[in-house]
Design brief:
The protein is an alpha+beta fold. Helix content is 27%, strand content 20%. The protein is built from 5 helices and 5 strands. Strands 1-2-3-4-5 form a 5-stranded mixed β-sheet. Helix 2 packs across helix 5. The longest helix has 13 residues. The radius of gyration is 14 Å and the shape is globular.
Length: 154
Amino acid sequence: MSNLASRCALNFSSKIRGRGSSYVSEARVEIEDFSDGVFIGSVRGSGRNTYTVSLAAPNEEAVGHGEMLYTHCECPHFDRVGPGCKHLWAFVLAIDQSGLWSDAPGSGDLDLVDSEDPPGASSDDSDNLEDEPWRDEESSHDRSGVAPWPGRSD
């Protein structure tokens, strides 16, 4: 395991890590966007579904608070139990393999935080985000109590 995977591995069971690893070896993971420490991608699951996944690298705000990694996956497992699904682990491994993680601050273990709101969005611009890939207006998932992305106040 390289940097990102080793820093957040404790958030995933060994079974989940094994299944996520197989998704990477089967080329089911795609990093679709990366900017300002935020990764957006997709992972093709074991069925016909492809899930959007996202994570935000710890920033100065997060590093000072236990080194959190803001994450989200559209899969039912994530919706039920939060961070720690096989799709997110596969995405973590793909990010490590890409080398895009190398500039992230900190070195300790990362705690995963469930957050579906886009990074850097403020409450006054949230109405203009309909076309963003992390927004799924047709989603039936209940996200009450979900932590906002860093810098967003809800």
